[in-house]
Amino acid sequence: MEYILETDNLTKKYGNINAVDHVSIHVQRGEIYGLIGRNGAGKTTFFKMLAGLSKPTAGQFTIFGEPASNTVKLRDRVGVLIESPGLFNSMTTFSNMKIQALSLGMNDDGYLHELLNDVGLSGKENVKVKKLSMGMRQRLGIALSLVGRPDILLLDEPINGLDPQGIVEIRELIGRLSKERNITILISSHILEELSKIATRYGIIHNGQLIDEFTHQELLKRCSERIEIRPSDPTKACTVLEQMGITEYKVVDQSIIQVFERLTESGEIVLELAKNNIKTLSIAVKNEALEDYFLSITGGAKT
Ligand code: ATP
């Protein structure tokens, strides 16, 4: 498998704090990769290293298979919106775009207008940034990150502080950029529910460590309705399930079997297991909300 971006044990220490601790992620071209973590999990630090804004303490990463060891090379390929966009508030929307373009050695006003149109800011070219709404400023931040025609976009918490309408607009914009411009997007958030509407793959970061990585299909499966059985003999129980014609199941922690089909037949399953001398230590129908799932793997209450 060829990855557009791959990190290998990327690590950042601040004194004795492991802000990012041996994180290895794999991002394929065209993916929208959602990096989920609670406050202080290490998302911003991770993105800063990918953007060349912070030097890793250890580990490395590659972009298009090439070691990303110098920031000049990176700047061409990676667009960045980290924390709040660095905007000149008393200048107009277009002037902000122009400054960004000049700093990258570009001089194509037509392209800048096209980008503003893409992010839904056409007509706002001559409006001073301080008069834009928070959602518009965030969209301008995304337009700025696109000026260098990047292949990869890093968006750190782009929906933070936006109202529901603003969130929908940013989500639609990200979906469009992915489809129409074929940009690979890494987006961080502390809200799994929000990212689940656009991301194709997820990485969960907790206390600086990547504790899980899974696809959107896998997430749907993990949160979908299922029967959870804890049998006395899980291996034998799987054979019994297969004899019953059940194929949609998964063994978790070598002790729990999750069954994703025939959800109304838990009684029959218990009976069939008993006939085969397998005790059912517990059985329940479960269906987790995304945020509950997130909390269950990162532990404890939301911060
Ligand atoms: P948030 O969602 O709150 O922005 P985050 O997931 O982006 O959090 P980071 O900002 O990357 O997390 O912080 C990870 C850890 O590193 C935290 O414990 C933070 O206090 C610490 N940290 C971040 N930047 C620095 C720094 N410049 N100096 C010292 N510690 C830092």
Please describe what this structure looks like.
This protein is of the alpha/beta class and about 300 residues long. The protein folds into 2 domains: about 5-215, Rossmann fold; about 225-285, 2-Layer Sandwich (Alpha-Beta Plaits), CATH 3.30.70.100. About 35% of the residues lie in helices and about 25% in strands. It has 11 helices and 15 strands. It has helices at about 45-50, 70-75, 95-105, 110-120, 135-145, 165-180, 190-195, 215-225, 235-245, 265-275, 290-300, and strands at about 5-15, 15-25, 25, 30-35, 60-65, 65, 80, 150-155, 185-190, 200-205, 210-215, 225-230, 250, 255-260, 280-285. The strands form 3 sheets. It has a 6-stranded mixed sheet with strand order 7-8-9-4-10-11, with helices on both faces. β5 (about 60-65) and β6 (about 65) form a beta hairpin. α3 (about 95-105) crosses α4 (about 110-120) and α5 (about 135-145) runs parallel beside α6. The longest helix has 17 residues, at about 165-180.
For this entry, give a set of tags:
303 residues, alpha/beta, Rossmann fold, 2 domains, six-stranded mixed sheet, five-stranded antiparallel sheet, 35% helix, binds adenosine-5'-triphosphate
Q: How many strands appear in the DSSP assignment?
A: 15
Name the average pLDDT.
Answer: 88
| CATH superfamily caption of the largest domain | P-loop containing nucleotide triphosphate hydrolases
Alpha-beta classification = alpha/beta
The number of distinct helices, counting runs of at least 4 residues, comes to 11
Overall radius of gyration: 23 Å
CATH class of the largest domain: Alpha Beta
Binned strand content: 25-35%
Which ligands occur here? Answer: adenosine-5'-triphosphate
Give the uncertain stretches in residue-range form.
none
What is the approximate shape? elongated
Secondary-structure element series = EEEEHEEHEHHHEHEHEEHEHEEHEH
As laid out across the biggest beta sheet, the strand order is 7-8-9-4-10-11
Regarding quaternary structure, what we see is: single chain
